[in-house]
């Protein structure tokens, strides 16, 4: 494992049997798993290059059980890693050898659907697509739609602030969550927000969303549901170069058009998706845009003509507008299946996740071509072009020489390129372990210390998901230590208590 995790605490490992017995008293029967063979299914998440068996696995069914497990682990100083469906692509749910894996998959009920207030109250184990399926009979839906929506859980979406195809117009998870119930590491149950639009006081809901399991364990989520638009149509646009497609994306947004979704694929991804899904993608183009417009019929028709004119002005060689709902769904089926499709053409791949300013798309795409040659590995690009959220898929074979190490180095260079052009390390996959050691590319030591002080306010012992996000973990006492230089305190004008 190239990315190092915290060294296991031998004292905890030595009392494993006692820990398992205590956990079984809280979550009895099959709710506590300790046999190595049975835990094997939990040893990794969507970032399958890294694997680690946990100390034990618990699958609670009630909030009281979650609180009791956390309270016990807090008292015994045992790390806890929360896990949803395990689809994280940044290693956010990678277990620890001396830690308890807290799996929330049994929290799988939709508790309430409130069409009058346009919201739903769900448990964190409900799948993303499950929410839409529950409300679509009344022509409602849940807007964030990551490609893994058929499997990923809403609790994991909150942890990573997931996005998806429609996040350009309708926002990420943070823009569609109204309230949460969560449990702190000390076992305290806290509610933030609710069915109302905004919560009073500090934006703790915004703080918790995207916190990657470092601040608390979510046990209930209130989400916003939207009424389905009157019309939705998509257009496939083919380009002779990726740079031309990137320039078209910037031009569409500059025109003031905000599509419901705007996705881009390069030639390797196009061919893989077409062979897998048979969506009717053109095979003779280097880049493909899928642009969807939704709203009233007249508005959609007008905007489609505007998008088509912009595309042709940027050298598009093909523009095909969906003629039916079935054809629109087929356009998207290829995009949604791009990740498994690429899995058919490469023994292994790393799915990266960086975000850049839209205007830098041509430059970054050219840069990735150069990096591909430098590291002698292929790359297929599939990404949310509208908001600059890139998902390069680095192709490699772990069984060959040093290809995995070169893939890691290639990925790190892509993320450094994103930061260089004014972007950030992640758009929706999170930092986890994958980007942890690159955090200093974006943040100063002071920045990271301030972020860790927030962590201390929720989890002073740093027991929740340690080893993730922060490249160097400081104890809370160290972060609060006051430096005295030559007998003088910093900021002497401030009152001291």
From TrEMBL:
The keyword Iron does not apply. The keyword Oxidoreductase applies. This is Lactate dehydrogenase. Its cofactor is FAD. It comes from the Bacteria. SUPFAM superfamilies: FAD-binding/transporter-associated domain-like (SSF56176), FAD-linked oxidases, C-terminal domain (SSF55103). Keywords: FAD, Flavoprotein, Oxidoreductase. One of its GO terms (molecular function) is oxidoreductase activity. PROSITE patterns: FAD_PCMH (PS51387). It holds the Pfam family FAD-oxidase_C. It comes from Aureimonas endophytica. Residues 50-228 form the FAD-binding PCMH-type domain. InterPro entries: FAD-bd_oxidored_4_C, FAD-bd_PCMH, FAD-bd_PCMH-like_sf, FAD-bd_PCMH_sub2, FAD-linked_Oxase-like_C, FAD-linked_OxidoTrans_Type4, Oxid_FAD_bind_N, Vanillyl_alc_oxidase_C-sub2. PANTHER family: GLYCOLATE OXIDASE SUBUNIT GLCD.
């Amino acid at each position: 494992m190239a990315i190092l995790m915290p060294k296991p605490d031998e004292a905890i490992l030595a009392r494993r049997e006692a820990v398992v017995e205590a956990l079984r008293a809280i979550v009895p029967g099959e709710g506590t798993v300790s046999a190595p063979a049975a835990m094997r299914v939990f040893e990794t998440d969507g970032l399958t290059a890294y694997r680690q068996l946990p100390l034990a696995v618990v699958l609670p069914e009630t909030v009281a059980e979650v609180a009791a497990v956390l309270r016990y682990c807090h008292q015994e100083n045992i790390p806890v890693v929360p896990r949803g469906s395990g689809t994280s692509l940044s290693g956010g749910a990678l277990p620890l050898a001396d830690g308890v894996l807290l799996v929330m998959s049994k929290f799988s009920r939709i508790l309430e659907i409130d069409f009058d207030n346009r919201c739903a109250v769900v448990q964190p184990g409900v799948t993303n697509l499950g929410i839409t399926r529950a409300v679509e009979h009344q022509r409602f839906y849940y807007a964030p739609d990551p490609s893994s929506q058929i499997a990923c859980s809403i609790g994991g979406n909150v942890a990573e602030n997931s996005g998806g195809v429609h996040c350009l117009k309708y926002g990420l998870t943070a823009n569609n969550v109204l309230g949460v119930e969560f449990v702190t590491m000390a076992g305290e149950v806290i509610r933030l927000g609710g069915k109302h639009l905004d919560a009073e006081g500090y934006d703790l809901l915004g703080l918790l969303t995207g916190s990657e399991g470092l601040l608390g364990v979510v046990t209930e989520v209130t989400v916003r549901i939207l009424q389905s638009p009157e019309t939705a149509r998509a257009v496939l646009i083919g380009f002779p170069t990726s740079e031309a497609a990137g320039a078209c994306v910037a031009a569409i947004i500059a025109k003031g058009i905000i599509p419901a979704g705007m996705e881009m694929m390069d030639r390797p991804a196009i061919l893989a998706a077409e062979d897998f899904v048979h969506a009717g993608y053109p095979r003779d183009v280097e880049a493909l845009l899928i642009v969807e417009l939704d709203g009233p019929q007249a508005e959609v028709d007008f905007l489609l003509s505007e998008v088509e004119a912009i595309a042709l002005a940027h050298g598009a060689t093909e523009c095909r507008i969906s003629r039916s709902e079935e054809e629109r769904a087929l356009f998207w089926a290829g995009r949604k299946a791009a990740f498994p499709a690429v899995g058919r053409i490469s023994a292994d791949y790393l799915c990266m996740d960086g975000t850049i300013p839209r205007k830098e798309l041509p430059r970054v795409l050219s840069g990735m071509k150069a990096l591909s040659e430098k590291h002698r590995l292929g790359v297929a690009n599939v990404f949310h072009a509208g908001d600059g959220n890139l998902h390069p898929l680095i192709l490699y074979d772990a069984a060959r020489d040093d290809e995995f190490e070169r893939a890691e180095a290639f990925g790190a260079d892509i993320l450094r390129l994103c930061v260089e052009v004014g972007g950030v390390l992640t758009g929706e996959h999170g930092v986890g372990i994958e980007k942890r050691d690159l955090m200093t590319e974006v943040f100063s030591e002071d920045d990271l210390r301030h972020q860790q002080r927030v962590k201390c306010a929720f989890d002073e012992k740093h027991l929740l998901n340690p080893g993730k996000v922060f490249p160097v973990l400081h104890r809370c006492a160290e972060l609060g230590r006051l430096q005295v230089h030559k007998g003088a305190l910093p900021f002497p004008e401030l009152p001291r208590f």
